[in-house]
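=== RUN LOG ===
request id: a7f3
mode: sequence -> structure
chains: 1
length: 637
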Amino acid sequence: MKNIENSKRWNLVISVIDKVIAQNISIKENKDKIKEKCSKLAIYSYEADVETTKVTERELLKMEREGKIFNINLLNRISRYYYILSKMQNLDCSKQLQLLTNLKAYLGNQFYYKVAEDIIEQLLICGLMLPDFSIDIPQTQLDRMIEAAKFLKNYNINTEIEYGGFSCSDDNSQKLFDLIEQKINAIGGNYVLGKVFDEFFNQHIPIFDLYNILRNSKDERNEPRNILLNLSIKHLRANIGYRDLTLIETKVDEVFQIARAWLDVLDIQSESGMEYSMMRVENFPLYFSNEIIFDKMCIPKQYNQKYILLLLEHLIKPFFDKAEKKYSFREYYCIAEYLMMLEQPYLFLNLEEIHRKTKVANYKIKLILEDISKPIKEVNSKFNSLEGEVDFYTRPLIRFPFEKYLYIDYHFAGFGFYLAAYDMIKAKFNILDRKLGPLMENMLRAEVSKKGYSVCNGKYTTQDDESDCDMVMQDTNRICFIEVKKTEIEDEFNKIDDVAALQQLSKGMIKAQKQAFRHKKNLLKNKKLLLKNEQNEVEISYLGNENIYMVSICLPEYSFLTSKNFSSKLLEVILLGGFSTVDPTRQSEVEGLNELGKIILQYATEIYNGAPIDVHSLSFYSAFASAQQLLTALWCS
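=== RESULT ===
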């Protein structure tokens, strides 16, 4: 995966590598002697300086960002550059790769070196004098990227080698988007959608009622299914007529090939799961942006039937009469339940069959279908670039002329049953949002209780604070504070706007984490919290040996935002100083997040009683999850 590079530092190291290689040094010396020399060249080491607090991680981060220091990770990335160079330009870069491999193999990444030509030269000479280690560069993904760059030249898309990957300019990305859309439109979205669904259908996991669409973080290829799904739906046709299916299949395969090549050359996926877990904090902004793009291309959000119906029952039913419809909630629910029982991933509906199966009056069926559908001309109509808005999922049906309704697999569009009803109620009842929060909490607590787990909630008061816990669970060695937020982030993801997405995170998941950290701080300080609600009082006690977990829960699916790697790194960033924007005019948009970070840092300081804060350990006990993730795990337990 690409990294943010300091161009001045990169170019200096490359020039010194070429200079040292030209010296033709062939002497090999004792590896321990050379390793000792390399350690003496270092200005800092993690063991000698960071662990003894002579220098903080924040200070090292700042110096790396400013291009003043580097460690072996930089040389790993330069290895990628030489490997790509050798394949694209048929150059012999074996000496450069051997030198960089030796330094990586024998030194690890604990040492930090000053960015100075003499220091770099001495270090590289040491690399030449180390015993040769077997060159080990993860080639599968790099080879795919190289082949993709060559393949795209056939479509007049030229990419340049940039650092350890390729540059894919905004213009090139737009050309590729337009090319894929034009080809899908010419073929007919129905055919491409058919292939996308064929791949999904074979990966259904009945126990979760979800398709197994995950990131491949090893050598396996990730498929750009999401962009193809959305462009196919944008260009669906009511009648496709007779076509040469062999020719169609060839053209559909070409569309997939172009989309795969685009994804490969973007270099936005890791080469291994370890790369994500070992990601350095300074690369978080790029990681965040890459993951938004990756999801937009590869990972459609999914919902299972049980969760969708649960939302209707708990969050929509209490307010449905506010929508002032000529049909009841039970009739709306009945239609939704029937449609989600259909086995085909997409099909045109038979209204008479719906009436026969549901016993809902025909005129009411027509009213409901009208309310839960979007006209085909409006579906994904703004999806004209990768940053464009995708909206097909907001309604479960697509409406064609002459009252023809196309049903789309509920895993992808079923959340639209909730959103359609929400919009109808909100249009007549503008305080809906403030009413939904408590109902969502009640829904989660009820489902947890059904499985026999003890869960409590309520307000508490301590000597110097008072607060309100949404959910608390406790057993003999664990205490878990769960805070629930409804805030959505879909619009910001649609636009691939990382700044706006961070701003929304501050209103939802991070605000929830702040509350959970507050509870943990108060519990550790007071050893117990007495929670009071309208039904009862429950005491949460801390005996001194329990692990305390802090979980933020959101209503919609957040995809990678709920991964452990992401939540941990996000907390590390805000605890280590927060975010700054490249565009200074947008800095105010992340200040809310930075302020929350300062409050969490203050709570963390109290948790550690003023001792140095271990941000890695602190974030280990934090997690983000969607309500569906929590409930699905619960239902399967």
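=== NOTES ===
DSSP finds 28 helices and 18 strands in the chain.
The chain has a mean pLDDT of 90.
=== END ===
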